[in-house]
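Job type: complex structure
Entries:
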Amino acid sequence: GAVVSQHPSWVICKSGTSVKIECRSLDFQATTMFWYRQFPKQSLMLMATSNEGSKATYEQGVEKDKFLINHASLTLSTLTVTSAHPEDSSFYICSARLAGGGNEQFFGPGTRLTVL
Amino acid sequence: AQSVTQLGSHVSVSEGALVLLRCNYSSSVPPYLFWYVQYPNQGLQLLLKYTTGATLVKGINGFEAEFKKSETSFHLTKPSAHMSDAAEYFCAVSDRAGGYNKLIFGAGTRLAVHP
């Protein structure tokens, strides 16, 4: 149980294009999902917290117009990197928290984004 | 602000040797504590967590960690390392009062296991 998937697992795009990454909780409902960014050989940095049906809460320094987050249902959150540039190349990981409480987050396998 | 310190960005042990990965947190109020493992190009897998109760927590794959309030530590150990334990390990904390349970991660420790 408590499986989180991400799609795509990797994506290569041209500079200036937009890329959408999906995060799904497969066997549970998640009222809260989190989006992290991980640079090579570094730790995870929280980008934003996404709550179903409401606007995402972004961490300081994260551009909300650059990284659009939509949490349309209890099992799906999407992150769209708009007008991507090479510096946006990174490993993006989502996690989901069980609806109804608990402090554990279940992580997706990550999406490797490369912007040329 | 809450912070997590993992001493040693790289740890190398021999197969069969004790594994000790160190983690200290900064909060005066004990937070929730977690250890995660990450294999290359993969997400994070929870090894174990401490929320309340017994301070020695047993996790998966033979790992365990002990919460020591007086030392603000949550070090991860395993009595005998296997080659398959080679990975990146992250210590994380979450404030008990946080409504969204944000996780704050340490910088990570890369564990290498050699024959």
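Summary: Chain B has no helices and twelve strands. Chain B has a mean pLDDT of 91.
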